[in-house]
Design goal:
The chain has 237 residues and is an alpha/beta fold. The chain contains eleven helices and seven strands. Helix 1 packs across helix 10 and helix 4 crosses helix 6.
Length: 237
Amino acid sequence: MILTFSNWKGGTGKTTLATVTAILLAARKKHVLLFDADSNMALSGVFGQVLKDFTSMSFLSGTGENFKGIYPAMEYIDIIPGDLKNMLLNNIMDRQLKINLKRAGYTEKYDYIIIDPPGYWGAHTRNAVFAADVLIIPGTCSRIDLEATKLYFRTLQQCYIETETLVCVNAFNEKTNLPGIYEEYRAEFGEYLMAEPIPYVKSLKKLTSDINYALQAAVKNKLDRFVDAITKEAING
């Protein structure tokens, strides 16, 4: 299964959620491949895999076959790192990533492939969206994030994206949220909005700076339910 975390606005928490999802799936002994399509290389930085010889740029610009850029990130997790020059690679088909992942055999080798694209609507983001089995669009409880998420969602609809799409309210805090903003998310996205928001907890940021950081049980339980929802793990066994 290919999971893409995407919004064309930065700061919505897509890299954090991609990290959390990968670590929780690895804890279930699922084999995960991370694909960092962002020139900011945030996901690569989390796992200490930056400025490598082989990157997501070289994967996309090739055929995918005999690729040498698979780096071990932690037990059960491998990564194809990001590249500072990714923004320069624009002459690629929107489905090149999906084609190359299949050609390389990664869709069969790994239980899950998690893609973290840039926070803008460019070639890498389109590739990440078209490759996905499930597209997760995170947004925080701010007016800017809501409007950006609405615009992104409508753009995807205009592109006739058939991928299963889920909108996730991230960094939810009843005390500090903009009043009424969560209700606006529910009114706007209806059945596409995930049932539970991701709470604002400082430990999630600690996890992105230390992948071995132990989450509190209550936080982990809520995040496990998030992973269940996006992967259908709880339903399918």
